[in-house]
From TrEMBL:
Residues 57-243 form the Dihydroorotase catalytic domain. PANTHER family: ALLANTOINASE (PTHR43668:SF2). Gene3D superfamilies: Metal-dependent hydrolases, Urease, subunit C, domain 1. It is an enzyme of class 3 (hydrolase). NCBIfam families: PRK09059.1 (NF006558), pyrC_multi (TIGR00857). This is Dihydroorotase. Keywords: Hydrolase, Pyrimidine biosynthesis. It comes from the Bacteria. The keyword Secreted does not apply. One of its GO terms (biological process) is pyrimidine nucleotide biosynthetic process. The keyword Hydrolase applies. Signal peptide: none annotated.
């Protein structure tokens, strides 16, 4: 299809989470942006110079923005490349990926930021942004050059799945980040308290004979960070809150007016510790899957706006690292291609409405990261998805587009598939 030709997506259920609106109609794309939208746009009112796609009543919404994905490149291309990650993203309705700095070498130098962004422009079919390391070598001891990395294009600063345990280093990073108006995204898990734990601490871990990680390992470090945010005035985002104790800390911080936001992973709002039964290593993630009460509390927190966003926490792991005894297997699950379908579970069971889910998957990530997207407003970039929320399927992980197949939803019954994905007005995915 000629991308220069105007395109009308007609006969769609237009769902704009930014405006919290839903109406039937069409959307006109011209020169890569949304030129018009509304019920007045039908196939019969446009001229022959405009191409028309009939969406057959399916939902049309902004593309998803995934704030947290491990892409592997450079250095771990056997796990994932920017190209394969983008193919998986497009098939899952994700039009923007924000990749973590856990590469080889890590993204702690402006040259590596530049490499990732150039490589993405050459090989990826969706937008790709890079987060830079918060500390050199992801070692947690010496702060990176936040100013220079930001100038090179780093969108935010994080040590990925590693926590900065040194409070003085964290304070200094928050102070410098404040001066550059930069965002710090932190994974909160006290590694000393977590010890050699491999799953959520509790009765179920005891029954499986596995060492547990207490929820306090997350909440205590988050509490420390909130005090440092109050001290420094920095911008802070909690990468993956997973338990009720953390939600209490986050609630107090927001009530106190601190500049903090938070996300949780799709795994933690759709799965719980019981899914590990049978020692399923594809469900071994960090932080670990929690108790069902924690999952329900997280869903309610998204509904209330206490937790701002949902991320895929996409982390490809190969057979050698996952086909191990549970305690020895690597943490991580893929999620780019299944995030929307898994999230629709919450819509189908009445836990969330569709607007609330899409706000957490697109609008709020765009706002937090100060990216375009997450809206169907006129003049916005045409990063758009069309999907049927009700089509049922059984997930076959072998058919997923990621290089690794470590999906916690393998053989799960899901509903909802993306039909088309557009990035800057260009169709990059169509389901056959």
């Amino acid at each position: 299809m000629n991308s220069a030709r105007p395109l009308l997506l007609a006969n769609a259920l237009l769902t704009d989470p930014a405006a919290r609106s839903q109406q039937r109609g069409g959307l006109l794309i011209r020169d890569g942006v949304i030129a018009d939208i509304g019920p007045h746009l039908t196939a019969g009112v446009v001229g022959p110079d405009i191409a028309v796609i009939d969406c057959e009543g399916q939902i049309l919404a902004p593309g998803l923005i995934d704030m947290r994905a491990v892409t592997g490149e450079p250095g771990a291309e056997h796990r994932e490349t920017l190209a394969t990650a983008s193919q998986a993203a497009a098939a899952g309705g994700v039009t923007t990926i924000v990749c973590t700095p856990e590469t080889h070498p890590p993204i702690d130098d402006p040259a590596v930021v530049d490499f990732v962004l150039r490589r993405a422009r050459d090989t990826a079919i969706v937008h790709v942004h890079a987060m830079a390391a918060l500390t050199k070598g992801l070692a947690g001891q010496e702060m990176t050059e936040i100013g220079l990395l930001g100038e090179a294009g780093a969108l935010a600063f994080t040590d990925g799945a590693r926590s900065v345990m040194n409070a003085r280093v964290m304070r200094r990073a928050l102070t410098y980040a404040r001066d550059f108006d930069a965002l710090i995204i932190h994974h909160t898990q006290d590694k000393d308290l977590a010890g050699d734990g491999v799953m959520n601490e509790g009765e179920f871990a005891s029954r499986l004979g596995l060492p547990g990680i207490p929820a306090e390992a997350e909440a205590m470090l988050l509490e420390r960070d909130m005090r440092l945010v109050a001290l420094t005035g920095g911008r802070y985002h909690a990468a993956t809150v997973t338990c009720r104790a953390s939600l209490n800390v986050l609630r107090r911080a927001k009530q106190d007016g601190l500049n903090v936001t938070a996300s949780t992973s799709i795994n933690h709002v759709t799965l719980n510790e019981n899914d590990i039964d049978g020692f399923r290593t594809f469900c071994k993630v960090s932080p670990p899957l929690r108790h069902e009460d924690d999952r329900l509390a997280l869903v309610q927190a998204i509904k209330d706006g206490l937790v701002d966003a949902i991320v895929s926490d996409h982390n490809p792991q190969d057979v050698e690292t996952k086909r191990q005894p549970f305690a020895e297997a690597a943490d991580g699950a893929i999620g780019l291609e299944t995030m929307l379908s898994a999230g629709l579970r919450l819509v189908h069971d009445g836990s969330l409405d569709l607007i609330g889910l899409l706000r957490a998957l697109s609008t709020r990530p765009a706002e937090i990261l100060r990216l375009p997207g997450g809206t169907l407003g006129k003049g916005a970039g045409a990063d758009i998805i069309v999907f049927d929320p009700d089509v049922p399927f059984v997930l076959d992980a072998a058919k997923l587009r990621s290089r690794c197949k470590n999906s916690p939803f393998d053989e799960a019954r899901l509903s909802g598939l993306v039909s088309r994905t557009f990035v800057s007005g260009k169709q990059v995915f169509e389901r056959s």
